[in-house]
């Protein structure tokens, strides 16, 4: 290859020594030094996203929305209030509307509590888990206190135990502890659990 076709590399160190540091700059820095401050982007500034405005429902529009919500499913009073407040202009109006709907029985904490009880029992949940579910929905346990008392939780727990572990009474401490933890997690108290895990097939008669 003929070296004459290629210019010799500039010795910038030698040029700086001859003309001074400030007079010579390599080509790759020259473009940046000419960039005006107006063209530079300041990344330190925070980018703010404008908040979405809620619909601000009032009057008949709020009432219509409340009925539409209740036709889809039952809501506790607390849950309905919070749901409507997301779209309403005035929270006080929401509270007054929900109170009215409750008086007219369009909304009912009693119905919600009874539905929750039936659903939880079908899922194999014990009284402690059911009470927790009521608490999470801000429902008073007193609404279904009678139903809780009338339920034979020993039968509920035994049915669950047999389905999971079979009818045999477990003698191995580790396996017995596993059954206890399982039933505790499902919401049954220890008295009920110990009756269930020691129950024999003879007791079924």
TrEMBL record:
The keyword Zinc does not apply. It is found in: Cytoplasm. The keyword Ribosomal protein does not apply. Residues 108-146 form the RecX second three-helical domain. GO terms for biological process: regulation of DNA repair. Keywords: Cytoplasm. Modulates RecA activity. InterPro entries: RecX_HTH_2nd (IPR053924), RecX_HTH_3rd (IPR053925), Regulatory_RecX (IPR003783), WH-like_DNA-bd_sf (IPR036388). This is Regulatory protein RecX. Residues 19-55 are annotated as: Disordered. Its main location: cytoplasm. Residues 157-197 form the RecX third three-helical domain. Residues 28-43 have a biased composition (Basic and acidic residues). GO terms for cellular component: cytoplasm. HAMAP family: RecX. It comes from the Bacteria. Belongs to the RecX family.
